[in-house]
Fold this sequence. Notes:
It is a single chain. With 319 residues, the chain is mainly alpha-helical. It has 2 domains: 1-49 and 293-319, no CATH class; 54-288, Orthogonal Bundle (MetI-like fold). Helices cover 68% and strands 3% of the residues. It is built from 13 helices and 4 strands. Strands 1-2 form a two-stranded antiparallel ribbon. Strands 3-4 form a two-stranded antiparallel sheet. It starts with 12 loop residues before the first strand and ends with a helix.
Amino acid sequence: MSTLTTSTFGKSSRSSDGFTIVKAKHPGRWIAAGVLLALVALVLYSVFTNDRFGWPVVAYYFTDFSTARGLLITLELTVISMVIGMALGVILAVMRLSPNPVVRMAAAAYVYFFRGTPVLVQLLFWYNLAALYPTINLGILGLQFDANAVITPMFAAILGLGLNQGAYMSEIVRAGLLSVDSGQVEAAGALGINRFHTLRRIVLPQAMRVIIPPTGNETIGMLKTTSLVSVLAVPEVLYSAQVIYARTFDTIPLLIVASLWYIVVTTVLSIGQYYLERHFARGSQRELPPTPLQKIAYLFRVHDRRLPVSTKTDQENSR
Length: 319
């Protein structure tokens, strides 16, 4: 029988019987790619040649001090809110899986409430909490706080974003815990391992493969959700841009500046998410997917040391 072979570079090659094998052509793919590239080129030409976009203004305010300070506050809100959300998510997920019906129903009620109301409404509610409780009393004699002094815009933003994120993270963590085979938990119990160590050493490491991808999406979503706190006058990226264009009337350029910073940070988070998923996939895949740097290196590689077996056979027969 003849063996069909294809060269590494996609050109025509010869089989062991001497027949020429030509790679199938796909003109439709090239036409579609050409049309898309032409449309992208037209859009880019229109955007960069339109003076109304104010690209000099964009370049000036992209590294402005107030914009950089707003970016730091945005990152701070994202990190703190996600830490609170992940901690609450783990606790609520364990409560949702508890055999105690009271604990299980309490966690379900929390998730039901915070997933059922918009984030913006929750932010405004926490910001106006002093209207309901002017004084915050922790139940200890003499320990009281003025709500107007405690519930600052930044604190209200952290409360609203963190508590809301905890409801969504609980469902993500619960799905990851349920993805682990129950037999492993039973085996750990038979070996005398308590529930805490079973969760920390056996269940969670395996559940991370399911938890990481949606958690990365939630982190990117949280980064963009922080723009809602501009209604509380928290000086994050969008509010900083609003303050500037309220003074200079350069609305579009400042909105482009805010959008560009969101894209930059989202790109960095996406790269981190990719490598984190790749790290936790080591136990479930024989060969890890190539990294972006490896893909770029492969494009510029002239000779591949790992040639297919059929290609090596052709080289030996041609000698």
